[in-house]
Amino acid sequence: MENTVRWGILGTGKIARAMANGLRDAPGAQLVAVASRSAAGAQAFGTEFRIERCHGSYQALAMDPDVDVIYIATPHTLHAENAMLCLAAGKHVVCEKPFTMNAREAQAVVDMARDKKLFLMEAMWSRFLPAVQEAQRIIASGEIGVLQQVQADIGFVANFPPEHRMFNPELGGGALLDVGIYPLSMAAFFLGPVSQVQALAEMGATGVDEQVVFSLRHAGGGTSSCACSLRAQTPTEMTISGCLGRIRLPNRFYKPDHLIVETMDGERRVVAAPHLSNGYAHEAIEAMRCIRAGLLESPVMPHADSVALMHNLDTMRGQIGLVYRADQA
């Protein structure tokens, strides 16, 4: 097929599996290759998803001539290194969130992509889902008036041992980078760039943040109040409020299949907006649209947003005293 885009997946963990399943429902996507740190790991993943080209090293995938775009599905600490490996080999890149460990790394990856004239996008999949796009359309229509505030939380009880990546500082553990990126990125998506941020945290035994609340002021006006937790099962909802009403993304706002519109006059309606399969197909569809159009970035998740959000996370980590090895490089 002339419009087929050939995908490779770098990594074989949980997120890699989610993307492999999502690509099955993305028209024009063909998953042709996978890479693991071991040949056995790559082969097992390849057998599961019927992938012919199974590489025992990330370098081999980056050099594979039959791959157009590579999805980075490794731990946070490896994102920058892996993305730059693939870009250096001439591959387009979709990199799992958080984009990198800090803003310095993020800018370096963006600079390389622009220098190589290759497509690069952070895989903030929530932004591409139909319900979120519909919320944007409703906001643009003026139905809920000028936006003033976003409230969002995300939290679950992480019953994992200390060495698990969620709690391991060597693997970029902590609530902010793993799940706090969702309310942060989505608040900026609706209200625009963040001009000021203030965070408070409860730190855990391994030295990473286990609960964080943070407040945002947006450059174009409006404020956001957000929370993330690895200790509590929170509602995980988002409310986008304007002067004439509000939009609610209820129950797992990062993966909504409907939204609720409530206006000042008492009107309330539920808008169905189902996503394809597990939801990951939509970011792949956008990446392929951009690649076919010759774009170097997506207007839905542009480079400037990814770098700015890492700056925001850097600021919050400075406020709560969370330092990673990558910050000392």
Automatic annotation (TrEMBL):
One short Pfam name that applies is GFO_IDH_MocA_C3
Q: What keywords sit in the KW lines?
A: Oxidoreductase
Residue span, Gfo/Idh/MocA-like oxidoreductase N-terminal domain = 5-121
Oxidoreductase in keyword set:
yes
- Every copy of the GFO/IDH/MocA-like oxidoreductase domain together lies at 132-247
- Superkingdom, taxonomy of origin: Bacteria
Indicate the family of this protein.
Belongs to the Gfo/Idh/MocA family.
**Any idea what this protein is called?**
Gfo/Idh/MocA family oxidoreductase
